[in-house]
Structures are given as C-alpha cells and as structure tokens.
C-alpha cells in the first residue's frame, strides 16, 4: 500500500514490484512451516491486497512479479503455483533472482517451472548477465527458459556473438544507479560506455527502472537525470517507456 503511495507521489502511473514470497514469509523459508504463522501464499495475499487498496486510493496501476531464488530451487514449483493461483489478482509474471549460475547451469527445477509458465501463458523475466562472465546466462534464459525480459543483462555486450543473437529477442530491464552501486557496471566496463547507452544506440528494447530503492534512495527522475549525464536523450526515454509491460 505504501509503495503505491510512494510511486504516486513520484508521478509514476504504472509499476511492477517483484519479491520472493518465501523470503518474505521467513528468511530461510522454514519458519513459516514450523510455526504455521505465515506462509508464502499468505504473503502473496497480503501484498496483492495492499496493491489493490493502493491502486484505489492513489489512482495508480500496480502489479506483482513472484521470484524464484537460484539458491533455493526447491521453492520454484510453489512460486509457479502461486503465479497461477493469483494471476487474476495482480500477479503478472515469474522471475528468477538472487545470484547467477555459471554458463547457464540453472537448476532443472527452475527451468521446469519456467517451461511450465510458458505453457500456462504466465509471463517470464529472469535476472541474468548482471555479474562478470555471465553473458551465457542471458542466452540460456532466452533460448532455453523462454524469458521475455532480462533483469539487468549488462554483461551480454561482452560477447559480440551472444549480444547480436539476443539483442532483439528480449526486453532488458536496466537499473542505472544499482548497476554501479553493486559493481555490476564499473568505470572501465565496455570501454567506459554504460551498456544502456549501447542498447540505445543499437535499438535494443530496454526500460529504465529502480532497484533496491531502500538502499539507493533514488526516484525514477534521479535515474533519468543520471542517464542524461551518460548521453541518453529524451527520445531514448520516450522509447523506453513505450515498451509493453507484462500485463496483456
């Protein structure tokens, strides 16, 4: 509810928030089962209820994406089930977050959940290409897990062949301030050119997003101003916000 209020005050008309139902239920995923106090499903119910109230009170449109966690592939099937159960209650997609494997070596349980999501018509986004030597992950999640959007994806530009083969197959969710704060993009990355600048030059589908705002303390306007210093123009921003969101 308060997230809707914050976004409305910043002039946002539509946003998607993503979270792990299991991690919000308890840090290790076991507390809820042991004490029967808060389940991952109850988390989704509470979040979607808050979103609906926020939409009504603040005249904003908001949706949720549920995250699988790479380190806990045993949660993936339940995440998919929650996406299916609450797809008409504001949940518009499934994600995979929290670290990346090497060379596309995703756990089969996560892969299977994404394949099943595709069969069910549930939209798919996946964190990939955020850490060094992870460009192969971008190719894998697009070609083998049918991801429609890529969270971050910066390192895909490091491999010209993979970049060329993937650049028009998916949408890239870029988080400028976060990319530097996490060292996903460093000052010497790509000869000093931020990947979003290259995406813009190459007509790649991308959007400008906020990430970990409790830490970064940025607004979307801050992200735009930051990118203008990197050379992006208002035309690039217009293109980025015209991309389709996950809701059909």
TrEMBL record:
GO molecular function: adenosine deaminase activity; metal ion binding
GO process annotations (BP): adenosine catabolic process; hypoxanthine salvage; inosine biosynthetic process; negative regulation of adenosine receptor signaling pathway
InterPro entries: A_deaminase_dom, Ado/ade_deaminase, Metal_Hydrolase
Needed cofactors: Zn(2+)
Class in the EC hierarchy, top level: hydrolase
Keyword annotations from UniProtKB, A to Z: Hydrolase, Metal-binding, Zinc
Any Pfam family the entry gives: A_deaminase
EC number: 3.5.4.4
GO cellular component: cytosol; external side of plasma membrane
Residue ranges of domain Adenosine deaminase in the record: 1-236
Annotated coiled-coil segments of the chain: none
Domain of life of the organism encoding this protein: Eukaryota
Family of the protein in this entry: Belongs to the metallo-dependent hydrolases superfamily. Adenosine and AMP deaminases family.
PANTHER family: ADENOSINE DEAMINASE
Protein name: adenosine deaminase
Organism: Dinothrombium tinctorium
